[in-house]
Amino acid sequence: MSLRERALKWGLTLLALGVLLLLLILLIRFPRRGRQKPPLLEMTVIPRAEGSSPGVYLRQGMEQAAADLNVELRFLLPASPGDGEEQRQLLHWEVENGAAAVLLFPADRGALAEEVERAGPAVLVTLETDMTGEGAGGYIGVDNAALGREVAQAALNGTRQGETVLLIHSVPGDNGITERLLAAEALLLSQGRRTEHLAFGAGEPPEALSERLEQDGTVKAVLVFESAALEQVSDWLALLETPPLLYGAGSTAGVAAGLERGSITAAVAQNDFSVGYLAVEQAACLARRKTPADRGELTFFTVRKENLYDPEYQKLLFPVTR
């Protein structure tokens, strides 16, 4: 190789090294270029009532998504549990004042339908109760009818034909919790069980439930369809010498405690942390005029004391935040 060819080869090599060094300097100096956070988005959350929703894990999921997506959450808590009219007023106020995004746990479709339609799909995402048919931009939650049937199926395994199952109606109104109850009742009746209803909201004293069980000694199982009331019924039944079997829906630490001590026979659980995260993510996408990612259908599982600490259920009942 001639001296000229060698010089050309070394020159090209040095040029390539210089380009690589320049690229490295740019990457070090501007590491976040092209990945800057979007502008801060304020998002309002309207639960059914204080203490009923969102639960601890669901709220943790919301807060994690808010941190990841540069969202500021503001919670507006209705004073009265399950008051659809008060929720309507809060939603109306938010829409009137130009809310960029709202997450709503509907207490009653009928009371909220007009205001939900007015809010528009770019503003509103619902949890627990699907109101996309009324104009909401999205829904994050499970198939409530399927979840109700899952709770009933667990109860069928613990009761016989002709025996009475007490259904706790803790969130009255046209909502996802009621959908669970009605689907469960339909399956129980089709399999020869008798059903009775008891209105019993979270936070209420247990006297009503106590009186009902004392008056009707034929109740063999109690079904509850949301976490807050399930925790309360579990705590009270744990004090009885011969309580009826308790089945329900929920994935909180209180529900896990009830499963562990045996006051809850089985619980149908979903990943509340993921539900909260996905709700904030979807609402943020809609508010920023982006297409939300298709995360597929949310799943749920039946958890008993025997499988409570199986690895697949640990993520449901004891989520780890980052």
Tags for this model:
single chain; 322 residues; alpha/beta; Rossmann fold; 2 domains; 11 helices; 11 strands; 45% helix
CATH fold-level label of the largest domain: Rossmann fold
User: Which sheet architecture does the biggest sheet show?
Assistant: 6 strands, mixed
Q: Note the run of SSEs as H and E.
A: HEHEHEHEEHEHEHEHEHEHEH
CATH superfamily (homologous) name of the largest domain: Response regulator
The number of helical elements comes to 11
Number of domains: 2
Give me the Rg, rounded. 26 Å
Number of strands: 11
Model regions low in confidence, pLDDT < 50 over at least 5 residues: none
Highest CATH level, the class of the largest domain:
Alpha Beta
Helix content: 40-55%
Shape: globular
CATH architecture of the largest domain: 3-Layer(aba) Sandwich
| Neighbour order of strands in the largest sheet | 7-6-8-9-10-11
Strand content: 15-25%
Mean pLDDT: 86
Structural class from helices and strands? alpha/beta
